[in-house]
Amino acid sequence: MKPQQLKPCLATLLFFHLLTFTISKQTYIIHMNHHTKPPHFSTHHHWYLSTLQSLPTATSSSLLYTYTTAFHGFAASLSSSDASTLRKHRSVIGVYEDQMYTLHTTRTPEFLGLDSEIFAENFEILGENVRRHGDVIIGVLDTGVWPESRSFDDAGMSEVPGRWKGECEFRADLESSLCNKKLIGARFFSKGYRMAIGGHRNRTREAESPRDVDGHGTHTASTAAGAHVANASLLGYASGVARGMAMNARVAAYKVCWKIGCFSSDILAGMERAIDDGVDVLSISLGGGSGPYYRDTIAIGAYTAVEKGILVSCSAGNSGPQRGSLANVAPWIMTVGAGTLDRDFPAFISFSKRRRFVGVSLYSGKGMGDKPVGVYYSNDTLGSGSGHLCLPGSLDPELVRGKVVFCDRGVNARVQKGAVVRDAGGVGMILANTAASGEELVADSHLIPAVAVGKKIGDAIREILMNEVEPNAELSFGGTVLNVRPSPVVAAFSSRGPNLVTPEILKPDVIGPGVNILAAWSEAVGPTGLDSDSRRTQYNIVSGTSMSCPHISGLAALIKAANPDWSPSAIKSALMTTAYTRDNTKYRLRDAAGDKFSNPWAHGAGHVDPLKAISPGLVYDLSASDYIAFLCSLDYSIDHIHAIVKHPNVTCSKKFSNPGQLNYPSFSVLFRKSRVVRYTRELTNVGSAGSVYNVSVSAPRTVKVTVKPTKLVFKKVGDKLRYTVTFVSKKEMDQMGGRSSFGSISWNNAQHQVTSPVAFAWTHL
Hints:
Layout: H1 3-22, E1 25-32, H2 44-53, E2 63-67, E3 73-79, H3 80-87, E4 92-97, E5 100-103, H4 108-111, H5 117-125, E6 137-142, E7 183-188, H6 191-196, H7 216-225, E8 229-234, E9 237-242, E10 250-255, E11 257-258, E12 261-263, H8 264-277, E13 281-284, E14 286-287, H9 297-307, E15 311-315, E16 334-339, E17 343-344, E18 346-351, E19 355-360, E20 373-376, H10 397-400, E21 404-408, H11 414-423, E22 428-432, E23 450-453, H12 455-467, E24 472-477, E25 481-482, E26 489-490, E27 510-513, E28 517-520, E29 539-542, H13 545-562, H14 568-577, E30 590-591, E31 596-597, H15 600-603, H16 610-613, E32 618-619, H17 624-633, H18 638-645, E33 667-671, E34 676-685, E35 691-698, E36 703-708, E37 711-714, E38 720-729, H19 733-736, E39 740-748, E40 753-762
Helix pairs in contact: 7-13, 8-9
């Protein structure tokens, strides 16, 4: 072809390229006025199809999901111009772009007291309700499930409850027979994901099925309700019995997360299906940024779930120790932070002159021999280099070959740093925390000999490396150690308050075990999750609020089994008001970020205590009308409230003067223009008749707290009594602006302590 003939061809190609760009599509979630459906449409689905077909570039195939339970509306693949047209439609309340959420990536039953004789005796006392344990169904929204895992063995389980409506959606790699009386459902939702990767083109290698090829979903599901499995371990680490919190409960897996992320359109579809299938607890170890509740996919779906009696447990996020970093903060959600166990995996770094440092590791290979080798550290922290972080391509093989490499934590994954060192010819790694992670130690199953250390030890080693000529070190590994003190400690990565969406609601609610957790794993991926990791193991040790969330989901299932008539808010209250705030050394909970004492912005009400939560004495209960009054107090429009509540004729006839008036098991007191804040709470007696409780208050010196009455006398089980608490700042705002402090309010008798944390903040906002 001659050069001059190329011009019209290039022009034509450019025209089609611009045309394709102009009409390129993405996924939108459309909130419809559900109750204005014209009568000539038999279903909302048909109405939505007709609405789409009226648009210039949309077709029937543009419709991805129809939502009728968790949300009122639909998800569709649209051009930006069609989305703009829809926003003007008289029945359309809102049009939102599909958002991507991220995952919030055995010793725990014993640590929580679930294996104790006392717990067994107390649970048995509850009588016939215990038999319903196997009737409780936990729905897990995550990366799917590895059904062959022994954690989903159904030996000895009764028949699946007749109310269950779920299915096992199998493909070539997941036969329906792999579902059983334990794993009773497996579904997948991929339409939003498929659109994000370009429709049917450029498909990733991940097959569209409920099968877990990531490991995260299998880990969380087995943590919540895995069966009793003897001799479980990660390549010899944490060897022992693995079991879930509610090991007789059922599991239903809903795959809504894929290798590139979790899309709100798929999450909403998964929540809707789980609600309709009949789950009792929803466990969701993922989240995104905080925002108004009417724009939060998980908050919208969770409201419907809670209204239908389903407790929703969500991870708080792994963005700690940054303040205000929480996800999933809606008051109808159980927001879960992470703490440590009393189990550790020590590893050692030995330098010359008998200097020895202790860290952690899950390395299980042959080691690096018994002779010290040179240590390399790229101390270019202020320059443009990234060798100190061990980012891909940042290490010079000529400098690191045959040496242990010192890497600073941050930017890329911890296990990836080890792979970078290995690929550059290094024989080992020292992974040191910076100020962001403090003294938190997270163990990993590294591909090479590697030891992780906290900031203090890291600084000491940095000093050696910067001041000594050709320092040498040897790495060694100590296996598994139990009864570590102090524990629990709040994980540095665990996201923190204050709650930026509604500061008057204290979040997180509680913390649970979330550091170095052993649970089932997908055999499609190695324990590091790296493509270069060819190892396969049935169990893995992982950390994150993703791991603490299913602990609380399983405990909620236990409480639901013991008290089947309790509402989700009553179960949440039981877990919160019985939580503890002192570790196994009897001191206040510590925070791994900075090695200081923790506070309710980090640990909420405290660390869960299942033995006490089964019988809390009193609970703070909530109804749908309470949540509506709460939403009205936020000054949302009626349309925005409808997006969450989904009922016609919702009004704000009942409206709190302050969002903090919600009957919540904790308090968040904001001193703004006034030095006086007054809240009223109502307690329900779930203990015994004739119970008498006296109040106990802990407050900072800057606040006067008055509770009326100071004694509550409950004549019968089920009785409800109110009290009013008045908080008065003793100092003016000018003296306290920007400060915070903490306290507690507790109702006590000989059998129970019903404790609520209180956060105080002085703010001009």
